[in-house]
Amino acid sequence: MKNIKLLEVPSEIGAGTRGASLGVDAIKIAALDFMSNFFVHFPSETIPSENNLLFEPIASPYAKRIKGVAAMYEKVSQAIKTTIKNNFFPVVISGDHSTSGATIAGIKMAKPNSRLGVIWIDAHADLHTPYTTPSGNMHGMPLATAIAEDNMDFAVHELDKETRKKWDELKNIGNIQPKILPEDIVFISLRDYEKEEKSLIEKYGMKVITTSELRRKGPENVVRSVIRHLSECTDLYVSFDVDCLDSSITKGTGTPVSNGLKEREAEDLVSKFMQNRKICCFEITEVNPTLDKENLMAEIAFNILQRSVNVLLVN
To answer: pTM of the prediction?
Structure first.
């Protein structure tokens, strides 16, 4: 049985659509609607955001609000590190996905000698860099910070000195770079990514499991093959972006994509991963209730969260 601590990160400065910072509260409201005491059951900590920057002009177009993202990386990585050092299992509920680079950093800072594998359940690869980004939104870059990749072969932007300095800071947070080896990343339900990201996936031989492969083999077989693929890793982190789900049920997220997972498939998949003793952190992200009249996205996210945590409690 694991001691669980909830880390709430209501930050949305890395997203292109407004509202993801409200995702944490939307999930809490879903818990109340289900009459669940989930949020009083575990110790929790809220990481202060930098969302005030949303009202200021954008200084770095190819890495929007990177100063604020760097500040979030510091805060989140330290919170994760302290949580793990105090023998708690961090369950992270975050607004946008940009801060997951800080989650990875915090795990490595707490366990510098570990080889960390990352299970990225997401429609997107999040492997862009400020040199390649089509949008400048930093929630498309966390894995690039974790593998310390610029992808200069596909660079289309020139960065100003300040942006380059901040980007290098993000890659080097905790004075460890890279945090993970590119071949220790597994993508599940990945289906919307650009040629720049595809080049890195192919260059490093990153494992990609499509929605149809998951359906064909079933969650149990997929989990087994992923764990086997990452058998050299001592620790595993699962990052669950709700846009991995099919766009028919993901109105409440900023970047919905068709041909995604069904709610039950996602629940089964995540809970089966949680049975593995190497899992050291779970994160759920990108719920945006402003796009969602019925709060359905948050309810689905809460179901996945609750079931996953229940598995942790019995293992």
So the answer is: 0.98
